[in-house]
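sorry for the late reply, my laptop died twice this morning and i had to redo everyting from scratch. anyway the thing you sent over, i finally got around to it. pasting the sequence first so we're on the same page, its 338 residues, then the predicted structure underneath. double check i copied it right bc i was rushing
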Amino acid sequence: MSHSQNDILCIGRSSIDLYSNDIGKPFVEIGSFSAFVGGCPTNISVGTRRLGLNSSLLTGVGFDPVGDFILHFLNKEGVDTTYVAKKMGRRSSAVILGIEPPDKFPLVYYRDNCADIAIDIRDVQNIPIDTFKAVLISGTGLSLEPSRSATILAAELARENNITVFLDIDFRADQWPDVQTFGTVIRSVLPYVDVIIGTSEEVKAGAFMGEGEAVVSHSQVNESEVKADLDESIRRLFSRGAEVLLLKSGTEGCYVHFADGTEPQHAPGFPVDIVNTLGAGDAFASGLIYGHLQGWKWQKSARLGNACGAIVVTRHGCANFMPTLDEVEEFVDERGGL
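ok and here's the structure:
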């Protein structure tokens, strides 16, 4: 891939995802799994690639068959894996997921000593970030060093070169000591971020400072305990940086908020029957980024993102099931267009 063609650099976690084949069965009764590829930035690299962008990925894998599995899939998809770092002594990450539609998707992360959290500043310095149109970072990539500093540096370099930085909040409570730590770290990177993507729970967690409340442990985190008002949380995030915030709202679609006080816009969703919600947010981000890089307005880009997300919730897994542009256009045309 020549540097002149670089569209999006996605940075962060990657994994082998083992998804239950026994849809609807409780986790303890699962009889078999299918193996796919996952991880928020990895999914987005595949999702944007299938839509037609030239997508690159910075992640870490181990010198192990799981890493080979991830790379084999990415290379088949045409994602640029030039910057994927193999980390000696580290293991490629794994996720195991049960599927009990419409709203139970129990999952377990295997991220002890994982390779993608070992990406470091040297890995970032090897990338010609100034040749990209956009960079995507995610919250989990900020959870531990050396990935945290590497991710912040990549965002900083992108900002210096006037490259759009997308932050997918990607709040995974079990990857953090508590929600207050998560919020503190997320806010620290916002001066380098242009566009924030998250659910209401993620936005509240990102804005959470623990005012007058005990710090919430990861085993207790839920929306009611992060009591911050949503509008106030959005204002707090905007006060640290970013110009646009995309609030993912499930079946309602998405709300586009603007730092300059412009009235929020609603991009309606597409009603579908849910099989598996995991990966829908990454499909949304893929469509959003695609639209933005085509020069579309935010509402239209978000609507395309909603279509991508709606298609993926009807499917089994994440990266392997990201839609192509032809599939999205057909889906949208059948439902009255964007």
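The longest strand covers residues 15-20.
thats about all i looked at so far, will dig more tmrw
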